[in-house]
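User: Look at the shape:
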Amino acid sequence: MKTGATIFGAAEHCDAMRGDAVRIFGAGTSVKCTTLVTAGSTPGAEVTNIDFLWPDVCITSFKHLHSGPAPLDPDYPQNLVNPVRDPRVNELYPPTPPLALNTRTVAGAGGTVSIFYQFTVGDFSFIWHDTNGPIKDFQPQIIPMLAALPKADVEFGSLVSTGEAINGVRDIAMYIQLIKPKIFYGGHADNFNIGASPYYHQALQRQFDIFGIPVADRPVVAGFDDPYDYVRPGLATFSWKDKQWRETPEGKTSVSCPAPRS
């Protein structure tokens, strides 16, 4: 509301943001929110092209599945993360007083609605999804959708899952296996255990072994360690003109987006 920026999300997200704006700034406050999928829609049923930045950036989106518990997968051995919190965090980064203005969202029905985005600039394409659900168990129609996506050079996904106490990092490893990125950035890993990112990275490599993914077919696994790396945006900076993005993995189609205007 303060910046005039346009928000994009599911209908539930727009409802939550409008309610938050009124709660925080008072009656009559409005926000610009563009609905990408209708309320209560089935994951994968609606694919939306976002033309807000076109032709410089091509963006597609669809609803997928928020992380959640699923029964123990009988097809694979259990691979738990067992993350450990860095004991130095509270001393190095002591809690600060809460802000005078409470800007936290009430979320509501939008709290567990998740949108999957693919951005393409010239030959470069990246994917962003800040959660990953047990699609094998509850939304199997998402599996062929991920497999059929055009090539993605970089994937930004979540290492943490609310179902990790049962199936570990199986879900994010499955997303990676289907998407086949060159580079994977695991975020969200320190949501519950600050400083625990290395444990998630180790579990992910073990899951690749369990899936039988050849080393040559695995992405470079990177990540952001909270709070150490979040002030280093250069860790995920890429040039869309780099020749390496012209390569397309086997089983994927090349991306198609007009080159940005100079």
